[in-house]
Amino acid sequence: MARTVDHERAAARREAIMQAAAALFAERGFESTSAAEIAKAAGLSSGSVFYYFTDKRALFRAIFEQDLPASRELVERHAAGDDPVASILAMVDALAADAMDPLAPGILVEVVRQVGKDPQLEQVIAETTAVLHEGFAALVERGIRTGAIDPDLDPRETAQWIQVVIDGAFLNADPDHDPRPMLRRMITRFLSRPHHGDTA
């Protein structure tokens, strides 16, 4: 029983450290945030960060390592939906929801700054992006086969553009504005089959 309690406590402390770190990194930047400041914000002793993480970069990576299993689960959950367009839009909704987080713009800036300095972080981001890309591409391909999506679209290129549009929501993030209705509208029109009389 004691081991279960210790495991849960350790997981809770790791989570508290990651949440505090994300907020500080978004506000002050990675370089300007100390491990002691992170520990204090998490309500823990000054040495706690390096007890749970090997260094500050490992902590920064950990914030984004959570995205990989979450992305896999998201793709799996929507892969077999009856309506591929509805599945694509549900994935877009789930991914764009985080754009309303006040931390989103700041943490995105730090990812761009740090990814070139940390090959492991770059790999984490690349793997997560690839999982989502494959998920979107598979749904687009199925939608083309069923006649729900414009057959002139290339599934892999289309998946890439869907991700670009989602990234744009983060670059223009506003916690007081929900970007999802506009994203849904844009992507629905992008995927739809042209009507007779439409011009390219």
From TrEMBL:
Q: Annotated Gene Ontology MF terms?
A: DNA binding
Q: Which UniProt keywords apply?
A: DNA-binding, Repressor, Transcription, Transcription regulation
HTH tetR-type domain location: 11-71
Classification via InterPro entries: BetI_C, DNA-bd_HTH_TetR-type_CS, Homeodomain-like_sf, HTH_TetR, Tet_transcr_reg_TetR-rel_C_sf
Coiled coil feature spans: none
Domain of life here? Bacteria
Is 4Fe-4S one of the keywords? no
- Tell me which residues form the DNA-binding region: 34-53
Q: What is this protein called?
A: TetR/AcrR family transcriptional regulator
User: Record's Pfam families?
Assistant: TetR_C_6, TetR_N
Taxonomic source organism: Saccharopolyspora hirsuta
